[in-house]
Specification:
single chain, mainly alpha, Beta Polymerase, domain 2, Four Helix Bundle (Hemerythrin (Met), subunit A), 3 domains, two-stranded antiparallel sheet, 19 helices, 5% strand, globular
């Protein structure tokens, strides 16, 4: 290594101290240090950002290889600041979707490389602990929407397009701008018009899904899930605005109403779609009966089918006290009270629109911390995870990424405490039959994590 490269590597090693991450850094970071030195660049000026970069290079071999192989990425790494997530998110929101896609193979690779580079920079700031994870999550969502808009423009340009725009609605995490690393895109497609327009829009939507989810030499942009469309697998890929409205008001099941609460238009005629979504949700909330009995039954089914755990494992989303408890609480709070969030239909926005108080603050602190653990486990694994291993070979690295040095036991205890707080709140709301019960709860204790409830063993319609 050159002298300049050795100084860069030493500086990265110094911020990691004697942690296990430092050992992995020595194996993975030298090529990056060489490339950075060759370009005449240095590390970010902010010490915390140097820590975030060092953590990412040590924890993720694909990211270490990306940083060493992508010369255009180097000056962006060197100039990173803690303001990057909000500044870059605003830039991506304002970016145009159309570009030259005549060479389709090159265009698809460009989408994937852009997604990887933007995610790399977001992860550096995230692992610096200089910004709260919801800020990183909003940037990851903005990146996904930017890639989606570009892919949609290309899909519309490469075949007969409908007369009006194809509108894409995001559900779940992307709807609330709560994306994480390796999240899927849950999408619904809408268009104005009759059979011919729906047919043309369906062909464009199929191309869009293909452009995002097909494996190329640069990987996959995003996995896409379209099962939340009206009638699921049996329904058409694209629905007219009027048919979608009628379905939600006349035929949709309660679980579909719960999912609709967190929907948001991502592309196309966004103003019309968001206006329609608001009208439908308001009508559903006005006539809805208490959702909590149904929510408890559905949550229990998911827990039995997808939340099984062995010692040392945590089904962080579907298991007892998992993230899904908060998904149900947030959507159920809207159906019960009809209070729309001030901004995005996120879990926090929906809950705070309905109730307040110390118990809600504690609950959301637990929720956001579990999301941090899940996100860093995904970075470490390089893929989406539903079950986290807190006692496996990678557990000390995960603990270090989550602020517990090499202490998996400490991380496991923290995760257990957050899950107890979440499950306690969920059961309290279900038993009281109102989300307002959260305003009366005191601090959580250290009792066991109880089951979600008793529901019939029916198939999970969201599986």
């Amino acid at each position: 290594m050159t002298g300049a490269a050795d100084l860069i590597l030493c500086a990265l090693r110094d911020v990691l101290g004697d942690s296990l991450l430092a050992l992995q850094l020595d194996d993975r970071a030298p090529p990056f240090a060489e490339r950075l030195a060759e370009a005449g660049l240095g590390l970010p000026g902010d010490a915390a950002l140097r820590l975030g970069l060092a953590r990412l290079l040590a924890a993720s071999l694909p990211d270490a290889r990306l940083a060493a192989s992508r010369r255009p990425l180097l000056p962006r790494i060197a100039s990173l600041t803690p303001a990057h997530p909000r500044r870059r998110g605003a830039e991506l929101d304002a970016a145009a979707g159309e570009e030259d896609s005549s060479d389709l193979e090159a265009f698809l690779d460009r989408l994937r490389i852009d997604r990887r580079e933007e995610t790399f920079l977001a992860a550096c700031v995230d692992l610096s602990d200089r910004v709260p994870f919801p800020t990183t999550s909003e940037l990851l969502s903005a990146i996904a929407e930017w890639i989606l808009r570009r892919a949609l423009a290309a899909a519309l340009a490469r075949g007969p397009a409908p007369a009006g725009p194809v509108t894409v609605v995001g559900m779940g995490k992307i709807g609330g701008r709560e994306f994480s690393y390796h999240s899927d895109l849950d999408l619904v497609f809408l268009v104005e018009g009759g059979t011919d327009e729906i047919h043309r829009a369906s062909r464009a939507a199929q191309r869009l899904v293909h452009y995002l989810s097909t494996m190329t030499g640069a990987g996959v942009a995003y996995a896409v899930d379209v099962r939340l469309r009206p009638s699921g697998h049996q329904g058409m890929l694209v629905t007219s605005f009027d048919a979608f409205r009628r379905y939600q008001l006349e035929r949709a099941d309660t679980w579909e109403h719960l999912a609709l609460v967190r929907a948001r238009a991502l592309a196309g005629d966004r103003q019309r779609a968001d206006r329609m979504l608001h009208e439908v949700r308001t009508a559903l909330a006005a006539r809805a009966q208490s959702p909590w009995g149904y929510a408890a039954e559905m949550r229990a089914r998911v827990e039995r089918q997808r939340g099984r755990e062995r010692p040392g494992e945590v089904a962080v989303k579907t298991g007892p006290g998992g993230l899904m408890d908060l998904d149900f609480l947030a959507a159920g709070a809207f159906l019960e009270l009809g209070h729309p969030p001030a901004g995005l239909p996120s879990v926090e926005g929906l809950l705070r629109a309905a109730v307040g108080g110390p118990a809600v603050d504690e609950l959301l602190t637990a929720y956001h911390r579990l999301r941090v653990v899940e996100a860093r486990a995904r970075l470490l694994a390089g893929r989406s995870l539903e079950v986290l291993e807190l006692r496996g070979a990678a557990a000390p690295i995960l603990a270090a990424l989550c602020g517990h040095r090499a202490d998996p036991d400490g991380l496991e205890k923290e995760v257990g405490a957050h899950r107890r707080a979440i499950r306690r709140a969920f059961r309290a709301v279900v038993e009281a039959g109102t989300v307002r019960r959260l305003e009366e709860l005191g601090p959580a204790g250290a009792g066991p994590i109880e089951p979600a409830g008793d529901g019939p063993p029916e198939p999970d319609p969201t599986a």
